[in-house]
Amino acid sequence: MGIGYGASDEQLEKQIGCVKYTLFCFNIVAWMIATALFALTVWLRAEPGFNDWLRILDAQSFYIGVYVLIGVSIIMMAVSFLGCLSALMENTLALFVFIGTQLFGFVALVAGSAVTMQYSTIHSSLQPLLNVSLRRFVSTSEYTYSNYVLTMIQENIGCCGASGPWDYLDLRQPLPSSCRDTVSGNAFFNGCVDELTWFFEGKTGWIVALAMTLAMLNVICGTMSFVLVQAVKKEEEQASNYRR
Predict the structure, then answer these.
(1) Bridge partners for 187 per DSSP
(2) 129-140: per-residue pLDDT in tens?
(3) How far is CA 17 from the centre of its chain?
(4) Which of 49, 140, 181, 241 gets the most CB atoms within 10 Å of its CB?
(5) pTM for the whole structure
(6) DSSP code for 163
(7) Helical residues (DSSP H) of 47-160, grouped into ranges
(8) How many CB atoms within 10 Å of residue 34?
(9) Between residues 62 and 239, which one has the greater pLDDT?
(10) Of 243, 214, 222, whose CA–CA distance to 69 is shortest?
(11) At residue 180, what are phi and psi to the nearest 5 degrees?
C-alpha cells in the first residue's frame, strides 16, 4: 500500500510539473503578444498623419477601442509575470488571483476588440461620422480649406465625394480634378466613406487579431491555472493523509 501511494504521489508530482512549466511557457507567449499589442496600438495612436485625418474628419471616436486595448495590454504584460511566479511557487491564492485577472483580461480584450471594430469596419458607427464630415466639405468645396481637405483625401485614397461623384451634383458643386483618375480621366466610382473605412479597417486588422489571440491565451492560462490549483490541493491532501 505504501509503494502504491508512493507511485501515485510521484505521478501526481510529474503532472504538476508538466502543467506548471507549460503554464509558465504560455505566460511568456502571452507577455510577448501583450507587448506587441501595446506597441501596435501606441503606434496607431501616435501616427501623425493618421491622427490628423481623424481630427479633420471629426472621427476621433475611432480611438475609443484603441485606448481600451492600450490599457488592457499594459495590465496583461504585468499579469503575465504574476502568472509565471504563481505557477512556479504553486501558490493557490496567487493562482486564484491570476485566474481572476485572466477572466478580466478576456472580457476587456473582447470588449476592446468589439469597440475597435465598431469604429473601423463597413456598416460601423464610423461611417455616419465620415459621411457628415465629407458632405460638409463637399458642400463648402469652394472654400480653400475644404478644397484642400477633399483634394488630400480624394487623391491619396482614390475616391470621390462621401458616397460617390453624385454628391457634388446633389450639393450643386463642380466635380474637382482630384475626383478623376489621372490616367483615364474618369471619375472615381467609390465614395470616400467606404474607401476610408477600408483603409482604417486595414490599420486595425492586425491589432484585433492580436487582441483575440491574447484573449484565447487568457482562457487557456486560466483553465490551466485552475487545473494546477486542483492538483496542488490533491497533493497537499495526499501529504496530509500520509503524515497521519
Answers:
(1) 180
(2) 999 999 999 999
(3) 33
(4) 140
(5) 0.84
(6) S
(7) 48-56, 63-89, 92-118, 126-139, 144-157
(8) 25
(9) 62
(10) 214
(11) -110, 145
